[in-house]
Amino acid sequence: YNREDFSWSEDLKRLAKVHWNITQWREKQLQVMNAALDRRDVFVLMPTGGGKSLCYQLPALITSGITLVVSPLLSLIRDQAFHLEEASIGVGMLTSNTSKEENKRIMDAMLATKTSSSGSGGSKRQPKAELEPPSELRLVYVTPEKISKSKRFMNHLEKVYAAGRLARIVVDECHCCSQLGHDFRPDYKKLGILRVLFPKTPIMALTATASSPVIESVLNTLNLAPIGKSTNATLMFDSPLFRANLVYKVLSRPNTNEETFRFLVNYIQTKHHRSNGIIYCLSKKDTHVFAEGIYKASQGQITTSAYHSDILDDEKNYIHECWRDGRTQLVCATIAFGLGINHPNVRFVIHVCMAKSLEGYYQESGRAGRDGLPADCVLLYRDQDASRLSTLCVTEPEGLTNVYSMIKYAQDVRTCRHQQFDNHFSKHSSSKKQIPCGMCDNCLLAGKDVVTEDLKTEVRALCLLVNKLQEVNERVTLNKLVEAWRGVGSLRVIAKVVRDEYETEVVPKRPNKDDYDRIINYLILNGYLREDFHFTAYSTLAYIINGPRSNPFLSKRPLSSLPPVNIEFGR
Ligand code: ADP
Ligand code: ZN
Fold first, then answer.
1. What is the pLDDT of residues 416-468, one digit of tens each?
2. Burial of 197 per CB tally in 10 Å (0-12, 13-18, 19+)
3. Using CA positions, which residue lies closest to atom 17 of ligand 1?
4. DSSP 402-449
5. What separation in Å is there between the alpha carbon of 389 and the centre of ligand 1?
């Protein structure tokens, strides 16, 4: 579809210039639009800021009938509608906020045919030659609830379809369909009905983040054919996830909140004096703690706001506005500050603790630098965050798998960060020519300050200990386990029994307490230990070990024949 000799090619060019003053396509835009205008189902995976909207807004001008856009958030919809109106394109919004009169006006306009012969069932080879007057309705934005809950709207949509007026269905932020993703919305799950009711209307699904399993589950939910080359397959278009202007770093988080505030103030004032940024926190409470802490530690020089889902809508809007125009420099937020935040000149996004998945992290950090200028994406990490996050996410489907992808990223001190994203999202991503990026922490420090230790002996002792604890049905928290491993604490007696039986040694004390967490995280990520959770009043988290057959450290083989356990410490 990378061609310019379709019957609509001239119109594409002309309308892009007229309405958006766009004269050059970005990566994959032309292909997507050609495929869409050829009435194919398409899946578009493009990084935030890559120019997804144009991919359906421009075809909407060329195809007669209306393009129905499902979008998850009111603020997103308003934003899009505003821009379309500015470009003098007929747009309507049907949301919970739409007045009765407006609702009726839009519903009527959806049916007000100029040419009912083309559209969903009609010829695809006859685009309009003339620019439509701006008053003609082209795009209708709805929240997913309209589809899943409003019978009236769906009845109307069936009429629009029957009249040949439903040109295209667009599912924006389509990763919300998948429970495997990080933004799952139950109402998105019901969007499969669209293909059932409107089998002839092509569908376009768009997102900035989706790994292969997420893509598959989105296609499934929407009742779209698998990706492939056959004539009814869904066509996949992905532009590289690589965004050259984003500089990724993982830094170790200081011990206390107070130190962290000082660290952040120093970082922001030296590197991002007066620039806009976001700090992502794990909990609502933390957003307030950090907003206040940073404000105070900077003696009021860094203006901050806290933002999370419990904040009232009016206040949310106000915070957003102040941040956008620079009155507030920094928003400390949960991921509720997310979808729909597309302010172009965000210079830094700092996570003070891990996101719940690498996809989430990519999406959240990707809110930086949408204007293409350099921006920093920093993760402040401590090994002990891992178990906290696991506990939080264990009840979610794929929760642990997602968390492990994030921990792996945080612990990797060698691989280019962009390479890591590419590896994770790999199956469908393409261009690797700009990786390694040469700018991220791992590219710059390439193994510097990293100490690699082979900890076979220690790991064997730990695995044997865990195995014994499991045998006697003793469930332990991470701290207790580490104590026993070091021969102290309440479990020291049982630990001694294990040592005597297997002739292992007490594990020497390490100068950095976090090292123990790092070792255990390594063992979990590599399948030697498995996290097991049980919920009681006191301990919520216990570690048990994989069965002896899968764990070589439980065998009687000599140490030298066991696989190496090279754990990297540092930075
Ligand atoms: P996304 O939805 O992928 O995050 P948008 O569709 O909001 O990104 O586009 C981001 C910005 O890029 C918008 O301001 C848009 O007008 C602009 N844009 C899109 N395509 C082009 C293009 N081909 N040339 C120049 N600017 C473009
Ligand atoms: Zn790199």
1. 999 898 888 765 445 556 778 899 999 998 767 788 889 998 999 999 998 88
2. middle
3. 51
4. HHHHHHHHHH-SSS-HHHHHHHHTGGG----TT-S-S-SHHHHHTTTT
5. 34
Main-chain phi, psi angles of 258, to 5 degrees: -55, -45
CA dihedral 185, 281, 477, 541 (to 10 degrees): -10
Nearest CA to ligand 1 atom 12: 51
Sheet holding 375-381, edge to edge: 246-252, 375-381, 346-351, 276-280, 330-333, 304-307
Q: Write the ipTM.
A: 0.97
**CA atoms of 171 and 183, how far apart (whole Å):** 14
d(C-alpha 382, C-alpha 352), whole Å:
10
Structure tokens at 529: 């230990």
| Pocket flag, ligand 1, residue 50 (CB < 6 Å) | yes
Residue range 352-401, pLDDT digits in tens: 999 999 988 988 998 998 888 999 999 999 998 998 888 888 888 788 88
Q: b vs e for 66-98, b when ≥16 Cβ sit within 10 Å of the residue's Cβ? A: bbbbbbbbbbbbbbbbeebeebebbbbbbbeeb
138-157 as b/e, with b when 16 or more CB fall inside 10 Å?
bbbbbbbbbbbebeebeebb
- The residue contributing the CA closest to ligand 1 atom 2 is 52
As a whole number of angstroms, the distance between CA 139 and CA 203 comes to 14
User: Within 13 Å of residue 419, how many CA atoms lie on the same side as its CB?
Assistant: 15
Is the CB of residue 49 below 6 angstroms from any atom belonging to ligand 1? yes
Give mean pLDDT, residues 186-191. Answer: 94
Burial class (CB in 10 A: 0-12, 13-18, 19+), 450: middle
Q: Is the CB of 26 under 6 A from ligand 1?
A: yes
User: What are the φ and ψ backbone dihedral angles of 405, each rounded to 5 degrees?
Assistant: -65, -35
DSSP 307-367: E-TTS-HHHHHHHHHHHHTTSS-EEEE-TTSBTB---TTEEEEEESS--SSHHHHHHHHTT
